[in-house]
Amino acid sequence: MQNQKREPPPRILVLDPVRPSSLNQVSEEFFKAKASLGFEIECESLADAPASVEFPSDEALAAAAVARRVSQVVHQGFRAIVINCFLDPGLDAARDLTRIPVVGAGESAVRIALTAGQRFSIIDVGPIKYACRSPTRQVLSMGIAARFASIRGIGVPVLELNRRPGVTIKKIVREAKIAAAEDGADVIVLGCTALARLAERIRLNLPVVNPALSALRTAETLISLGLRRRARSS
Amino acid sequence: MQNQKREPPPRILVLDPVRPSSLNQVSEEFFKAKASLGFEIECESLADAPASVEFPSDEALAAAAVARRVSQVVHQGFRAIVINCFLDPGLDAARDLTRIPVVGAGESAVRIALTAGQRFSIIDVGPIKYACRSPTRQVLSMGIAARFASIRGIGVPVLELNRRPGVTIKKIVREAKIAAAEDGADVIVLGCTALARLAERIRLNLPVVNPALSALRTAETLISLGLRRRARSS
Amino acid sequence: MQNQKREPPPRILVLDPVRPSSLNQVSEEFFKAKASLGFEIECESLADAPASVEFPSDEALAAAAVARRVSQVVHQGFRAIVINCFLDPGLDAARDLTRIPVVGAGESAVRIALTAGQRFSIIDVGPIKYACRSPTRQVLSMGIAARFASIRGIGVPVLELNRRPGVTIKKIVREAKIAAAEDGADVIVLGCTALARLAERIRLNLPVVNPALSALRTAETLISLGLRRRARSS
Amino acid sequence: MQNQKREPPPRILVLDPVRPSSLNQVSEEFFKAKASLGFEIECESLADAPASVEFPSDEALAAAAVARRVSQVVHQGFRAIVINCFLDPGLDAARDLTRIPVVGAGESAVRIALTAGQRFSIIDVGPIKYACRSPTRQVLSMGIAARFASIRGIGVPVLELNRRPGVTIKKIVREAKIAAAEDGADVIVLGCTALARLAERIRLNLPVVNPALSALRTAETLISLGLRRRARSS
Amino acid sequence: MQNQKREPPPRILVLDPVRPSSLNQVSEEFFKAKASLGFEIECESLADAPASVEFPSDEALAAAAVARRVSQVVHQGFRAIVINCFLDPGLDAARDLTRIPVVGAGESAVRIALTAGQRFSIIDVGPIKYACRSPTRQVLSMGIAARFASIRGIGVPVLELNRRPGVTIKKIVREAKIAAAEDGADVIVLGCTALARLAERIRLNLPVVNPALSALRTAETLISLGLRRRARSS
Amino acid sequence: MQNQKREPPPRILVLDPVRPSSLNQVSEEFFKAKASLGFEIECESLADAPASVEFPSDEALAAAAVARRVSQVVHQGFRAIVINCFLDPGLDAARDLTRIPVVGAGESAVRIALTAGQRFSIIDVGPIKYACRSPTRQVLSMGIAARFASIRGIGVPVLELNRRPGVTIKKIVREAKIAAAEDGADVIVLGCTALARLAERIRLNLPVVNPALSALRTAETLISLGLRRRARSS
What we know:
Number of helices of chain A: 7
Helix content of chain A: 25-40%
CATH architecture of the largest domain in chain A: 3-Layer(aba) Sandwich
Largest interface: B-C, 51 and 51 residues
Number of domains of chain A: 2
Shape of chain A: globular
Order of helices and strands of chain A: EHEHEHEHEEHEHEEH
Structural class of chain A: alpha/beta
Strand order of the largest sheet of chain A: 6-7-5-8-9
Radius of gyration of chain A: 17 Å
CATH topology of the largest domain in chain A: Rossmann fold
Largest sheet of chain A: 5 strands, mixed
Number of strands of chain A: 9
CATH class of the largest domain in chain A: Alpha Beta
Oligomer: homohexamer
């Protein structure tokens, strides 16, 4: 986007839908470091959100926290909002409350994956290790299940992902290779925004989509395209 | 289900995911009047929920209110929970928090419709009158879009549905007839639990599915089948 | 459903679409024992049906037998009909002949599974042991293939299922565990009504749907909802 | 297929799944006139089948009649069987009973339509005039719903189709034009084998697929390809 | 099709979308030997096409070569055109340029497979050995993904397939058996027209669809049905 | 993306897959004006491409021209390639030839639409005015048909779109409004890159996605994400 002198740089609000912790500073640094020239970032966590978003019940609480915050900031001049969680909590609610672009990390990552390969696998985090070739409810609701190859959980809780990054990366690489060899994936989607900084250290012969960065670029793109959603659509 | 003398009758918790108002008594009366012999009903509204659930932002707040309440009642001996709203706010969250059956009015109604006809249309409420033959996100996420014919909004806000019931019924009948004639529907799903009592007065040459009653019967069925969900599934 | 004194209890006709044998008494006892208070059961086998329904050719003969019987009982005051076979032989035909609810055991079980989990696997019976992750024609025709995880055959013919129940249960449990671990299923559907009594003895960390019981509860629900199909719909 | 001197010409059994009437001779003449060089036709109606196949209950009876007849002819040296009815009654059953190709008129016509255009509409017959853009159960079960545009009923019962052929053709042309203009169809599938002879007189700027002729050519093709189904597959 | 004395036999143009080589004579002999009585074959390779069609870039060049050739032959009286490559290069383009039937080997084979079984697996060729249970872009674009079981690559480049036919057949048989046992396939589609002559030597307990022969029979059928596509449809 | 001093700015190659004409300068000006800071644009037309890409035969020729050009520029240090045509000619081929991101205008626009609304309609150009609610082959092949509402052609050939821009815009607005009111669309995708400059002048109560600009932003995003496709994937 060409800088236009008269206007102040567009501000993007990044919502970490988790309660404040030392992780938020990590998020803030990541987004500020990665923002394209000409965009400004404000990063917030939410006091009424859960500590992490791993289960559907966390998701419901996080979604309400996002909805409440978005309704407060409607008139503060942000040009886009990023919900910095793969499960996209509150995405529909936020889009209902404002016509500026609202971007979910999960939806953004999957959309990027559609152009980076033919079939994507999601590498999921959380305490349970599992594998599944049928689409999740999130993937079904996006209407793109035909491009889904599998989801594979590495069995590491969100809050432990960055404690031993080498181990985390190793587990991701292992599952991603199985996804490619056995599930037919040719692009990997990381299933958690807490992997934002680890993402660059993952070495694979496949594109690896970083959801936090995907959301940031999508927000910048939507601002630059000038798209505004229709309000209150079904 | 045969009465078994030793056990107390199973109790079903009906959650109206809206804040307390005169409507809750209506709900309570409806569910108590319609419950099958041998089941007991407790009906609650939720102080931290919105006044009505018409838009995605209402849905997010309602979902969190449901999640909070379900986490409180986990050990109170209920045998099933009904979320008495067509949009199923908090359904996934509640199922994540308890292994007893949790039933959403929308999901129940659609499931009943699958056996009552080949293609269903939803008659939606809310301020906007509209028609759409592509599946909604709720329908997509259920994975049954192939059976969906259309959704048609009658343009009456939830809180006005029961003010002039004759008008409401007339509008529902009109849209339902168009759904049958032009969209190919052979079963009609009412898209709001506030229509529970009006439902019986709708006369059509098509089956009309009442979501509140569908949810009640589904809860009773699941109790009687003894099904318990796997906890914490993705 | 509240008992209404003036009306006689609603009668449900259970059709075993197989020729008379000692198994029918088993069916009759099962349905009578499990019927909810206020419902009466009549159970019949059909002299012109095959000995068991394992293959598509059995299914065609069973379907015609069902159709003939339904056309005879149309005016006998039944309030619902259950076709007590997972393959739902004659379901469409029966629905074409009467406007009272007609319930198939397979369709009912799958519908129940949609609310008991996100992805179902069917444990099939019959002489051939097999596994398949693509939807069967029955599943395709229901329009719910997106929720299907797999079908796994245990390789035991229908008429031998109850000879050595311990062995049958062991094989079911083994396949169900594979379905959960490798196919992503979080709910199991038993693929044969001859498993009705064995079903309760199956112990799994997943809900297990019993098709005979599902059909009975669905029939009761549809009677209680007062739904009548549109006649002669395509 | 090159004639091979040593072998007798392959015989195709055409089953009209209706009870004997003057219409059968019409069928027989049609198939004999249209058979490719080197193929022989035997045409039968079935005494235990219904008079016409318009409703699902007719279909069940017709299917059983087909199944019984196929089981009798298994060893009579036919090389393929055609079920001459658009609804494909008994198709799965027949395929279960023999490994020679069994061809349904409906399935054949739809398959041909997939190569003759991008989106097909079915012009249906029977007493009810209707239009529907959601796939029928038959189309769903074929797994090709993405290519389906609509089904439109002309409101003429099967047994009256050939009484006033000019009127029938006019109604077909009218619905086909609406299917092209409003439903996006670029190929028309006639929905009844009783239209076999009328088909050639239909003039449209779209390909029109004749199900009887499609079935005959498909049978010849499958014989010539030497394909034999796997027996007793699910 | 009955021979009609007055008309010359219909000519089918077979386009090998590869540059001239010794393989073309093999193609020509195959099609001439297999053509049904009453049809004439002309077989051409294309000087501006690639040496083989294994990758998407080959496909683009082959498609343009097909389009150029079809536009030249539009008035030469052919009654159908066969594109003799499984990837169907130029199929849409050719159909856009002429209203006579244009038949792709891949599309024809898949269509035949839909009638020969319930779920098909494609045995692919090319240098890479792989397995994938998600539909390819070609399968997705046909709109029949619900019937797809898997694609399995044997890891033999096209130009080496016929060097050691025994080895090629052995690899095909091995993958086909895995497709049946693990992917649920009950019909096998050979994924390359260069396998035309090998196809008959493959012995399996499953039908095996030969794409070159499928295309030939489909062309003959479409000629005989007199179907002409609508020109310039989207 | 933060400028990194050591590296030259990433260059994006924009291929207009049409033969050189005065329109190319328009394209070049558009892309250069819209490129984000830090990216450089090179814009080319292709001498061996057709004059415009309206029909599938144009598409085949354009695809081959793209493939040839991409194979020539593989080592010229471009960081991404944009194929500036809604039909994405040569997209798969180009991706096969290089591991740098290759972006099609149609695919990019549809992906953007997935985040800008729930259901998209495409406003198509070309000589024929039409409307269709079934997915096109392009939409099917993307695997996102569940999100497609309709395609509506305005009946203006590509080369005339910019002659009377007011008329073109009026026709687009009219069809877009019908798409919203009757087809359920809540986001509009312009179906031709020749509308790039007109796009900003379209005033609607719906987001309108400009495919040329979508492709540019997608290319910039993919460069910035550092994604490289796996080579030679199926």
